[in-house]
Automatic annotation (TrEMBL):
It comes from the Eukaryota. Keywords: RNA-binding. GO terms for cellular component: nucleus. Coiled coil: none annotated. GO terms for molecular function: RNA binding. The keyword Nucleotide-binding does not apply. InterPro entries: Integrase_cat-core, Retrovirus_Pol_polyprotein, RNaseH-like_sf, RNaseH_sf. This is Integrase catalytic domain-containing protein. It comes from Austropuccinia psidii MF-1. The keyword Oxidoreductase does not apply. GO terms for biological process: DNA integration. Residues 1-69 form the Integrase catalytic domain.
Length: 69
């Protein structure tokens, strides 16, 4: 729930609804809450693969950017 609130309060309220979110397979992003939010807002959730590791690094940098906002 904390991650969802962080993204909503710091990103979505500032930039608008995302059309696509790329995430690692963290349970925070695979929960029923996220499934319902994606259906409600019509966003697409894509998961990074284990390789290449650069994809996972991109997700981590984006999360850090959101936390720094």
């Amino acid at each position: 729930m904390d991650t969802a609130l962080l993204i909503w309060n710091r990103a979505v309220s500032w930039t608008g609804i995302f059309t696509n979110i790329i995430s690692d397979r963290d349970p925070k992003f695979t929960s029923a809450l996220w499934t319902n939010l994606h259906q409600l807002y019509g966003t697409k959730l894509s998961f990074s693969t284990a390789y290449p590791p650069q994809t996972d690094g991109s997700a981590e940098r984006m999360i850090q950017t959101l936390e720094d906002m």
